[in-house]
Design a protein that fits this description.
Elements lengths: L1 H16 L4 H28 L1 H5 L1 H31 L6
């Protein structure tokens, strides 16, 4: 975990230094997307090779759907109350 944190901090520093260079930003965005897609592909390969995951896919899929819907509904509800509490009274009429 320390390695991940150090890489993240190093990336933030390099991004801060290179933030004004639009060419670097364009290359970074394309490279990031490529690596994200590669990681997703490799995750799919890993899951496809795992017999335990494949045999329990229906249960895991249902749990994932419930967690996803719960997260979305929780975000919507919390956003609504945050808006009402912090921003609604500030409107000029």
């Amino acid at each position: 975990m320390l390695n991940v944190s150090l890489f993240l901090i190093a990336g933030i520093f390099v991004g801060y230094v290179l933030r004004q260079r639009s060419r670097c930003l364009s290359i970074t965005e394309k490279t990031s997307m490529l690596f994200i897609l590669l990681l997703l592909f490799l995750l799919g390969v890993s899951l496809g090779r795992n017999k335990t995951v494949l045999s329990n896919l229906s249960v895991l899929g249902l749990q994932a759907a419930v967690i996803t819907v719960g997260g979305i509904l929780g975000s919507i509800i919390l956003s609504f109350f945050t808006y009402k509490y912090f921003f609604q009274g500030r409107r000029k009429r």
